[in-house]
What does this fold into?
Amino acid sequence: MQKILIQNGEIINAQKRFKADILIKDEKIERIEYKMEAEADTVINASGKLIFPGFIDAHTHMGIPVRGTESADDFDSGTIAALHGGVTTVMDFTVQEKGESLVSGLERRKKKAAGKAHVDYTFHCNVTDLNDKRLLEIPEIIRQGVISFKAFLAYKEAGMQLDDRQILELLRSVRDAGGTVMFHAENGDLVEFLTDTYLKYQKTTAKYHGLSRPAEAEIEAVTRVLTLNRFVECPIYFVHLSTTEAAQLTFMAKENGQPVFLETCPQYLLFEEAVYEQENGHRFIASPPFRKQNDLAYLWMALNQGVMDVVGTDHCPFTIAQKDAAGGAFHLTPNGLDGVETLFPLLYSEGVKKGRLPLRKMVSLIAEEPARLFGLFPQKGIVMQGSDADLVIFNPEGESTIRAKELHSAAGWSVYEGIQINGEIESVMLRGNWLLKDGELQEENLNKGQFIKALI
Ligand SMILES: [Zn+2]
It folds into this structure.
């Protein structure tokens, strides 16, 4: 393979930023040195540019069944979107059918991605139908390179909700095997009770999506998991945290020594519940719902202060037709929003440029920390000798506006339409291959995404 030398750029890792040249050979970073003298087939001048490790979206759902339809992006369109946003690794989820083994669920999901994905990928293992046989499979899933297991405290009607005894059993089995349990933390019984109550009075507009999934649903679920886990001490990870109180409770548990990690998503940093009362508010339906202004402010602060560990996107968009199919009825509208392509641009522009997030902290949240927590570090998540040559070359100059017609999701629209962004991703490299070069998609390097095995 050719040697590529990238000169004069400024490397931004989570731990430090520095000016250096990068020599790439055979998919890996061979050397990093200040003013390197080296033979190379191609020399790139990155003067004035920032060089980030390829970003990681720790939370995507490509082509999954939701409320009788399927999310609009499969691994093809979804990872085309990813690479344009500088995301070179996506962490998606398996889907466990009723009665299906975890191993079979993982196999099916791997087949869906193989040959289609344009960036590297790994999976978290959904555990929605749990019994003793499934618990015995956990070490095998970890041997196969998937070390995180996701439990739902909601979606009983869809047959996905685990009860407290199942949660305890899962926590113990995963702890013993060296993995992590992720939680969708909403009290599903409370949500279904409130939903049924609103439906009884024909309250079906988008506003009732938020009212049926109140902050208390998240707070109770987080409190319960933290309490149960005191008896197990398994590493746990809360996905898409949205409320101040739940984040504070988690942080207290962390301070008390519980191995607990937190994720939020750009939509919880940028949108308030009032969005649901706008025209076509139902198109913004995602769970958990958007919260209040003080929650947004707290979440930004939490990113900065180490309360939050990861920003993932929960990328799971639907077309306008899919979102509108139920006439706006909140309980029938598929849950999910776009996000993978705008993860970095939004965190950089709304966070770093607005002084709410230090640049290196941003790299920690969307590169190093997800790689560490989910067993990919230091192969992924850092620009370092020996790491995969996954790089983002970014020009911090200039401004533009997010336009759905310029994004690559098959959804065809974006909740982030019209937001101003700073700078421009110029080039993106996956294991030494350019996916994007000076803004141009490199067709010959597509479909080369690989399943990356996680190590405990
Ligand atoms: Zn999700």
Observations:
- Residues 215-229 form the longest helix (15 residues).
- The mean pLDDT is 97.
- The chain has 13 helices and 19 strands.
